[in-house]
Specification:
single chain, 419 residues, alpha/beta, 9-stranded antiparallel sheet
């Protein structure tokens, strides 16, 4: 595994001279680093940055000669300012001349929220010459290359985390490539800003069409970036296919399985659904929660009769996105359905016939549900006349799958034959 190069590496050492070989080794690999002495409170950020993935830390931060408890307490106080609850997975590498304090550090880290996935030992003293008569120790002449090799071998131990870290780097690389390409399209002269603004206006038009308010700078910027996001995804997929880190990843247990229903439901929800902001206009893919009397009674009865357990009525806006973008809507095309509470540890009783669409288990408001539609119930309503509360937005890939099955259901020719 290679160390992340997208700005998520921290080095903490109270002595710059002792941090230098490590900083040089990281710099040689093109890894940007945030360096802190750990002894000055005003050098630390007021809020922990998000997404730190590797922390190199010296155990003695201005606490030479003090108790083990004091040393670890100071280290943990610094880490609390740098690694917050929303940070995500990270690795701590002990960069220290005090290997006898490693276990005390491990215990302290176990109580931190979040705790690191791994604690690796990169003993600083092993890269230093024996002490002189004056007690001074200097780094060996090849310390930088020794640190590089040790880092590579130690980071091979992180297993599946290496895949996530490689993906984060590739996301950064893909975005950098798109930024470069876009920047290069516009001549680099005194009119660059004006011309680039015209490009952004065009990108926004391509995404939002007639829904765009051309005088709203925020709306233009948002829709332009949504267009670039599609380009970014294509660039990212291309990088994934040829990146050596992905091809050479080790540590994945290919015989493992994951049977945690709650975690699977949360992951499926991230893949299929997106959060919405109340101020957003209604768009294709919006999913609304309904009361029992908010829709056609016959449709409600028909849907409810197809399932034997608790249900929550919903309706999905399934109009083509191009109708929305080009302001060709006359009515909302709506597909009624329901959320069916998934029995924990059980199997769904609802069937998925040719005229139905059923999701895998999804976490919605902390509960596992299946999202089920009966394609025979497709209907329409006047614009801006959808009852109920908007719950989520179905992502484009999932919406396209529902629309494709709906189109097949409507257009299937049938076969005439005798039985």
């Amino acid at each position: 595994m290679k160390i992340p190069h997208s700005g998520r590496v921290i080095v903490i050492d109270d002595k710059m001279s002792e941090a230098a070989p490590l900083l040089r080794a990281l710099a040689k690999q093109g890894v940007p680093v945030a360096y802190f002495t750990g002894t000055e409170a005003d050098e630390l950020p007021t809020e922990p940055p998000r997404g730190t993935r590797v922390v190199f830390v010296d155990i003695v931060l201005g606490t030479e000669g003090q108790s083990s408890k004091t040393k670890i307490s100071v280290v943990m106080g610094v880490l609390k300012r740098l690694i917050g609850p929303q940070n995500g997975p990270y690795i701590v590498v002990a960069w220290t001349k005090h290997p006898d304090e490693i276990e005390a550090l491990r215990e302290g880290l176990s109580r931190h929220d979040p705790a690191p996935m791994k604690l690796l030992d990169l003993q600083k003293i092993s890269y230093m010459e024996p002490a002189t008569e004056e007690g001074e120790r200097r780094f060996k002449h090849d310390a930088v290359s020794m640190v590089e090799k040790k880092l590579d071998s130690e980071l091979e131990k992180v297993g599946a985390l290496a895949v996530l870290l490689a993906w984060e780097d590739l996301v950064h690389d893909a975005a950098s490539g798109v930024t470069h390409d876009l920047y290069s399209l516009v001549p680099h002269d005194e009119n660059w800003n004006r011309n680039a603004s015209g490009v952004f206006r065009g990108l926004a038009d391509a995404y939002a069409g007639k829904q765009l308010s051309p005088g709203d700078v925020t709306e233009v910027a948002q829709n332009a970036l949504r267009t670039l996001t599609g380009v970014h995804v294509d660039a990212l997929e291309s990088l994934i296919g040829r990146d050596e880190r992905v091809k050479n990843v080790t540590g994945l247990d290919l015989n493992a399985s994951f049977d945690d229903t709650a975690a699977t439901a949360k992951l499926n929800a991230r893949l299929a659904l997106a959060d919405v902001v109340d101020s957003d206009p209604v768009q294709p893919g919006d999913l609304f929660g309904l009361g029992c009397n908010d829709f056609d009674i016959e449709i409600s009865r028909h849907i409810k009769s197809s399932c034997k357990s608790d249900v929550r009525f919903v309706v999905l806006e399934v109009s083509p996105p191009c109708d929305y973008a080009q302001a060709k809507w006359l009515r909302h095309r709506l597909l009624p359905g329901f959320l069916w509470r998934h029995p924990r540890g059980g199997k769904p009783e609802c069937k998925n016939p040719l005229y139905g669409w059923k999701s895998d288990v999804l976490d919605i408001d902390g509960e596992p549900w299946l999202l089920i539609f009966d394609l025979r119930c497709l209907t329409s309503k006047k614009l801006h006349d959808i009852p109920g509360r908007r719950l989520r937005r179905v992502r484009r890939g999932t919406l396209a799958d529902i629309q494709a099955k709906l189109a097949y259901h409507i257009s299937r020719p049938g076969v005439i034959s005798l039985r």
